[in-house]
Write a structure and sequence with these properties.
Length: 133
């Protein structure tokens, strides 16, 4: 990402109210956002424009689940380096372990977070990736 350019967050979330809120909150905090409501549309869009700084990925999507989306992201050389944070209301140990095995940065339980925490976590993960590059 060129210096001075806003970080670009891709939000893959089928809950319109939550997705709109995340886009609004992240935009206020100086992020560019793209939102997809399905896994398939997200994969098509991200492959066409693989410029995301970070992906917020819901697990329960209406077409293919977030784990399949994550698997496809990690198989694509242009997307594989993009940090992924899973956001889900289902935070069973097996889901967290599977996400980590597939290469996520974090697993967030949506029900237990306040919006400012999500912004802080997104900012932190992007900063860590920049520092490591």
């Amino acid at each position: 990402m060129p210096t001075g350019q806003k970080p670009h967050v891709v939000i893959i979330e089928d809950d319109d109210m939550l997705a709109d809120f995340l886009v609004q909150r992240l935009t206020i905090e100086n992020f560019d956002c793209t939102r997809y409501a399905t896994g398939k549309s997200a994969l098509v869009g991200m492959r066409a424009a693989p410029d995301a700084s970070l992906i917020l990925l819901d697990i329960s999507l209406p077409d293919i689940d977030g784990f399949e989306v994550l698997t496809q992201i990690k198989k694509d050389a242009r997307l594989a380096h993009t940090p992924v944070i899973i956001t889900s209301n289902f935070s069973q140990e097996k889901d967290i372990a599977w996400g980590k095995q597939l290469g996520i940065e974090r697993f967030l339980n949506k029900a237990s977070l306040v919006p400012s925490e999500i912004v802080d976590i997104v900012t932190d993960v992007i900063a860590q990736k920049k520092a490591a590059a």
